[in-house]
Amino acid sequence: VQLQASGGGLVQAGGSLRLSCAASGRTYNRYAMGWFRQAPGTEREFVAAASRNGGSTDYADSVKGRFTISRDNAKNTVYLQMNSLKPEDTAVYYCAASTSIWGLRAREAVYETWGQGTQVTVSS
Asked: Which of 18, 47, 70, 102 is most buried (most C-beta within 10 Å)?
C-alpha cells in the first residue's frame, strides 16, 4: 500500500483542520492506520490510530477530546479531524499503515508504510 497525506495548513488557535490520507492498493483493509506527528527538534510521536474496520480507535492523551480519527474503507482513506487546535499541535503530521496487532498501535516501529507528511501550523 502507498499513502498520500493532505489537508495541512495554517490555522489560528482554536480552529480546525481535517487531514486526509489516501491509500492505494487492494489490501488497504488489512491495515490498521495511524497518525503521528513530529515538531521541530522533537521525536515523532503517536497521535491516533484506527483498527482495520475502524471499530476501535485510540488517541494520545494530548489530543483526546479534540481530535477524531475515522476511516472510509470504501474510499481507502483515513481522516484526522482536528478541533480546538493549539500552538503546540504545530508539527508535520504523518499517516502510517500497520499489519501488526492492535495492542502495538502506538509504537512507531510496527508501522510498515508511511505517507510523506503534511505540515500543520497553529498560530497563537
From this structure: 47
